[in-house]
Amino acid sequence: MAPPQHEFDFIGSICRKLTQHPRLAIGIGDDAALVQFPCHSSNLAECLVTVDMLMEGVDFTIPPATPRQIGWKSLAVNLSDIAAMAGRPVACVVSVSLPRKNGFALGQGLMDGIVDCADRFGVAIAGGDTNTWEGPLVISITVLGEPTNKGPVRRSGAVPGDWIMATGSFGGSIAGKHLDFTPRVAEALALHDAAALHAMIDVSDGLAADLWHILDESRVGATLDAAAIPISAPAAACRDDKSPLEHALSDGEDFELLFTVSAAEGQALLKAPPLIDSVPIPLSHIGEITTGRDCFLKSPEGKLTPLPALGWKHGFDGAR
C-alpha cells in the first residue's frame, strides 16, 4: 500500500511542473520568495513575498481562540516567515472568507488583531478581499518584505561543521503560545547583523520537521543533542503519552528561529548575544551539521537514534 500523501508531496508535484522564471531569485522551497523588479538605476529592486492560509478547525478553534487572537496569529505567522529570511516586513494584503452566521462581528474582531500586529511591526495593510459563505472562517494573508543589504538567509546554506542554534524554547504551543506569539523579526535582523547566518527557518511544523527542511535544501545531515534542546515550561509540565522532549521536537507552532552558523560564530553569539530592548536574545546550541544525509538524536548517554521529520503535515485521504 502506498504511504499517505501530504502537503509536501503536493508541493513537490507543483515544482516539477514549473520552470525557473527570470524574475524569481528565490522560488518555491523557502520561507518566502524573492521577486526582482527592474528599476531606473543599474540595481534591481527586490521584494520578499510570503503567504499563509489559516482555517478554523485546523489552525485554531473558536472558542477558546478569540477573533482578535486569530487576527494577530494570521499576520504574525507571515511575519515569522519574513523573519526566517532575515527580512523586514513592509506591507500585507488580507483575504478572508467569513461565515454568514455572526460573521460581521467576527470579522471586526479579526481585523482588530490584524491591525494590532501590523501596527506593532510597522506593516501597511494595503487591501485584500472579503467573502461570506456557509463554511467556517478561512483567512489568507500575503506579506511583502524587503531584504537587508546582506541579502536573505535561505534554508540551503548549511555546511558540515556548522552549529545548529535556536532562539527561545520549544513545545510552547501546547499551552496556547501559537495564538499570542511575537514573531522574531527583530531577533532575526539582529542575528543577521551580528553573524554570517548560513541557513535559517522558523519553526512552524515542528523542530525536527523544520530541521529536516534545512537538511534537505542544504543536502547535509545533522546530529541533534537531546540534552541541549530548550524545552518550554508547559511542555515540561505536560502529562500525557508524549515526553517533554517529544513535545519539543514535534508539536510545532513555536515560531522560534532555527539557524546554522560556523562554530566560531556560534561561540561568539553565545558569549555575547545581540540585545533586543536591552535584553539578550535567548540562544541555544542544540547540534551540529554533518556530512551525509542522515539526522540523529544524541541521548545524554551519547547514543545516536535516527530522527525522522516529526511534526505537522496537512494530509490527504484516498489512494494515489
Report the CATH superfamily of the largest domain: PurM-like C-terminal domain
CATH-assigned fold name of the largest domain: Phosphoribosyl-aminoimidazole Synthetase, Chain A, domain 2
Write down the secondary-structure element order: HEEEHEHEEEHHEHEHHEHEEEEE
Number of strands: 15
Please, what is the average pLDDT? 92
Count of runs of 4 or more consecutive helical residues: 9
Low-confidence stretches: none
Q: First CA to last CA: what distance?
A: 10 Å
Number of domains: 2
Q: Please give the share of residues in helix.
A: 25-40%
Radius of gyration: 20 Å
The CATH first-level class of the largest domain comes to Alpha Beta
Using the 3D structure, state the CATH architecture of the largest domain.
Alpha-Beta Complex
Strands side by side in the biggest sheet: 8-10-7-13-9-14-15
Structural classification: alpha+beta
Question: How is this structure best summarized?
Answer:
It contains 9 helices and 15 strands. It has helices at 7-17, 67-84, 103-121, 177-180, 185-194, 207-218, 233-237, 244-250, 263-271, and strands at 24-26, 33-38, 44-55, 87-99, 124-133, 138-147, 163-167, 199-202, 221-225, 257-261, 275-276, 279-280, 283-290, 295-298, 304-306.
